[in-house]
Each structure stands twice: as C-alpha cells, then as structure tokens.
C-alpha cells in the first residue's frame, strides 16, 4: 500500500490531533504516504486533500480540536455521493482511510469499505458512547474540564449555601456524568440509563440541608433532557429548591467541555489507537474499528460493533456515586 488518507468527522474531541499525528508518523515509518482530508467526508468530494510531510504534524499532539476540521455531511448517506468519493480517492491514489469520529462516521467508513476502500474507524468523541472500547479519545480531557469547573462551582455554592445542578455532555450516555460525579464528590448524579429515583434524591438533599450542609452538587447528564426524564436543568433546580431548602442554581457547562489541550491519557490512547489503525491498513485489513479494552488495543468488525455491541456505562461506578456521598 502506497498512500492512505486520514479525516476527522462528526463532533470534534481533544486528542483527535494526537491520533492524526500517530497515523501520519507511523504510516511514514512504514514508507506509506499520508493525505490529510479536510472537513470530514465532505472534504473528499470537495477535494480538500493534501499530502502530509513529517513536519506538518509537528506540535499538534498537544492541541485541542482537530487541525483537519470536522463537518457533518449528511449527503454521504447517498450511495451516488459515496461512489463519487471512491472515484476521487482513486484519482488521488488513496487506497485506504483512517476515519476518526463517532458511530455515524463509522457507518460511513463501513460503507466505503464495501466499495473497496479499506477504512479503519477510531473512536473520537468526548461522550464515551462507542461500542468496542472502554474509553473514547477525548473523554478523559472533557472529564478533567468538568471536574475543574465543578470544583469552582462548589466553592461559590458553599459560600452562599446553595445547591447547583450542573448539566454535562455525553449525548445519550451517562459516562461523563458518572465519572464527574465520583471525582467531584457530587451529592446526586442523573444519567439517562437509570431511573431517576427523584423522590429519594430530593429527600436526601433535604436531609443534607437540615443537617447543616452548605452545598450540594447535582450532576445532570444531557441525555436525561434529550430523552425527557428531566425537562431542563432549571426545572430540576427549581424542584430541588422547593423540596430541600437549598437556594439552587443551574449551570450548563456547554462547549467548554469539547475544547482544551488533551490530557496525557488521551494523548497516549490516541497514539496507541492511531498506530494500530495503520498496522491494520498495512496488513490489507479494512472495515474494522479500533478501541482499548482492559488496557489492550483491540479491533472489531465495524458492522458487529454498530449492530451487536451496545455501549453500556459502568453501572457499578454509578452505584458508587451514591455509596460514598
Ligand atoms: P459524534 O458522535 O461526535 O456526533 P458521529 O460520527 O456520530 O460523531 P454524525 O454526525 O452522526 O457524527 O456522523 C458524521 C458524519 O458521518 C456524517 O455527517 C456523515 O458524513 C457520515 N455518516 C453518518 N451516518 C452515515 C450513514 N448512515 N451513511 C454514510 N455516512 C454517514
């Protein structure tokens, strides 16, 4: 194999650049040329394609976001658009592709593989919601950002004897909320995968208030709003205020969670997965997604991952949130 492409697709995540760098460097080590494809799958069609040299990926390891740009390109669901993409890749001599993104991006990668361009998917999203891997690239950095923010919210909540509902990202997955809940010592954590047990939580918060506690942090996964379990962080805050006695505020952390320099963990993860993707491609293998399980790099058939390997959050960790409150 002489030349491959790399692109980032879907929502961006810290550590995507570390993955791009690992793909580029390990391919170059094997004498394989690497083309950057800009702005996700749309960059194939618009031919935003550039051959990378060793220096092009210097110093991107520590940068947040993705230097390749990311885009949503729903047109890629149309077979004729994908066929046109294959022709363009052929024209540029690109024989295989590393796609860094979420499960939507994996679907595109699977379909391209069926058209003869071997694709490997890498899990790039802060949400940790991809099957076949214990951790996604960007999760650890987003978690770090959340914990720093919640620590600050706790300071001011304590001063004013307030409770604070903090909405965190995660799409339909509760992982960010669970890990943030444990590491910030939250009084309650709401995730979309579990019943809320709202009356119990309200009762606990009232007890906490009555016993003189000066703050309460409630972590709310955005998935609870998406699936209608909670109307809004403000509505939950109001409910807590009425039932517990705490004056309550709501904070939506928002896109701050998606930015920032990746943590060492995310850099290492991205580097391992990127290098593994290249080793698969070099062996003529495609249609696989790469992940880490129990600290070992693993790969699975993308179809199997998408169809049969549902992501489940660590419910033992969810239970731990309430055990150590
Ligand atoms: P995130 O979870 O961070 O949003 P994602 O990869 O799941 O990432 P999507 O917007 O679902 O984000 O998908 C990214 C891109 O992948 C789409 O804009 C489209 O170009 C391509 N894609 C998604 N679904 C399909 C599909 N069924 N067939 C072909 N291409 C697809």
UniProtKB/TrEMBL annotation:
How the protein is activated or inhibited is described as: Allosterically activated by ADP and other diphosphonucleosides, and allosterically inhibited by phosphoenolpyruvate.
Which keywords are on file for this protein?
A: Allosteric enzyme, ATP-binding, Cytoplasm, Glycolysis, Kinase, Magnesium, Metal-binding, Nucleotide-binding, Transferase
Location of this chain's protein in the cell? Cytoplasm
- Specify the domain of life of the species encoding this protein: Bacteria
Known catalytic reactions: beta-D-fructose 6-phosphate + ATP = beta-D-fructose 1,6-bisphosphate + ADP + H(+)
Q: What is its EC number?
A: 2.7.1.11
Pathway membership: Carbohydrate degradation; glycolysis; D-glyceraldehyde 3-phosphate and glycerone phosphate from D-glucose: step 3/4
Q: Which residues bind ATP?
A: 11, 72-73, 102-105
Requisite cofactors: Mg(2+)
Q: Does the keyword Kinase apply?
A: yes
Q: Active site: which residues?
A: 127 (proton acceptor)
Question: Do you know which SUPFAM superfamilies this protein is assigned to?
Answer: Phosphofructokinase
Question: Where is ADP annotated to bind?
Answer: 21-25, 154, 185-187, 213-215
Q: Which GO terms describe its biological process?
A: canonical glycolysis; fructose 1,6-bisphosphate metabolic process; fructose 6-phosphate metabolic process
Residues where Mg(2+) binds = 103
Quote the function comment for this protein. Catalyzes the phosphorylation of D-fructose 6-phosphate to fructose 1,6-bisphosphate by ATP, the first committing step of glycolysis.
PANTHER family per UniProt:
ATP-DEPENDENT 6-PHOSPHOFRUCTOKINASE, PHOSPHOFRUCTOKINASE
**Subunit comment:** Homotetramer.
What the entry lists under HAMAP family is as follows: Phosphofructokinase_I_B1
Q: Mind telling me what this protein is named?
A: ATP-dependent 6-phosphofructokinase
Q: Which organism is it from?
A: Culicoidibacter larvae
């Amino acid at each position: 194999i002489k030349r491959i492409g790399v692109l980032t697709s879907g929502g961006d995540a810290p550590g995507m650049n570390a993955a791009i760098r690992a793909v580029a460097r390990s391919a170059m080590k094997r004498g394989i040329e690497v083309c950057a494809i800009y702005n996700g799958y749309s960059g194939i069609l618009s031919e935003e394609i550039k051959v990378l040299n060793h220096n092009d990926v210097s110093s991107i390891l520590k940068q947040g976001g993705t230097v390749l740009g990311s885009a949503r390109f729903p047109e890629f669901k149309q077979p004729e658009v994908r066929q046109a993409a294959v022709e363009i890749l052929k024209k540029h001599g690109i024989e295989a592709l590393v796609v860094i993104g979420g499960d939507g991006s994996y679907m595109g990668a699977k379909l391209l593989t069926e058209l003869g361009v071997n694709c490997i998917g890498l899990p790039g999203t802060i949400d940790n919601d991809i099957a076949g891997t214990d951790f996604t690239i960007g999760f650890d950095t987003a978690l770090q950002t959340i914990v720093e923010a919640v620590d600050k919210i706790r300071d001011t909540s304590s001063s004013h004897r307030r409770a604070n509902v903090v909405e965190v990202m995660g799409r339909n997955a509760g992982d960010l909320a669970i890990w943030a809940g444990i590491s910030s010592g939250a009084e309650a954590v709401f995730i979309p995968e579990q019943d809320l047990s709202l009356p119990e939580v309200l009762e606990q918060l009232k007890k906490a208030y009555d016993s003189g506690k000066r703050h309460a942090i409630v972590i709310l996964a955005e998935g609870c709003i998406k699936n209608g379990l909670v109307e809004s962080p403000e509505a939950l805050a109001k409910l807590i205020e009425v039932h517990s006695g705490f004056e309550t505020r709501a904070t939506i952390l928002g896109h701050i969670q998606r930015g920032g320099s990746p943590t060492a963990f995310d850099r290492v993860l991205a580097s391992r997965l990127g290098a593994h993707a290249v080793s698969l491609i070099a062996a003529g293998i495609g249609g696989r997604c790469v992940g880490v399980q129990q600290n070992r790099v693993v790969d699975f058939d993308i179809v199997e991952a998408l169809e049969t390997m549902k992501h489940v959050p660590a419910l033992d960790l969810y239970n731990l949130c309430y055990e150590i409150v």
